[in-house]
Design a protein that fits this description.
By secondary structure, the protein is of the alpha+beta class. It has four helices and four strands, in the order H-E-E-E-H-H-E-H. Helix 2 (58-74) runs antiparallel to helix 3.
Length: 139
């Protein structure tokens, strides 16, 4: 009978590694806090020339979108309307994604060690099960 991945690597290592890896990575991702400062007055893009700067807010990005939608409804073959609409939506999506911040919640060092041992140890067992056990290793 073949094991994991069609090799003689062992189904036990495969499933134990898979469970450890899934549990560890779940606990790791569960410990990450995701926040965003996105809002209608939030500056998405900042341009600075010399000592002064200019910031484009998320509300300002909607102005070309409004004009683009108006041009599309007036004449659906208007290229400028499509460029304004698609460009504004692309800029808005990019601005939202770039305003996301990730932070790690506070935890004890024991918690972090358990998470890392489960995730990385499980990954090691999982990958070990995919290679053949009867393979000769050079000494």
């Amino acid at each position: 009978m073949k094991g994991a991945g069609g090799t003689s690597g062992g189904l036990g290592h495969f499933f134990i590694g898979l469970v450890m890896m899934c549990g560890g990575f779940y606990m790791l991702l569960n410990a990450i806090k995701v926040t965003s400062s996105f809002g209608m007055g939030m500056g998405l893009y900042r341009f600075s020339a010399g000592g002064s700067g200019f910031s484009i807010t998320s509300g300002m990005i909607m102005i070309p979108f409004i004009f683009g939608v108006g041009l599309i409804f007036y004449n659906s073959r208007n290229i400028l309307g499509w460029i304004l609409s698609i460009g504004s939506i692309s800029g808005l999506i990019f601005g939202v994604i770039s305003s996301i911040r990730f932070s790690f919640r506070s935890m004890s060092s024991f918690d972090l060690i358990v998470i890392l041992v489960l995730a990385v140890g499980g990954l090691g067992l999982f990958l070990q099960s995919l290679k053949a056990l009867d393979q000769k290793y050079p000494e």
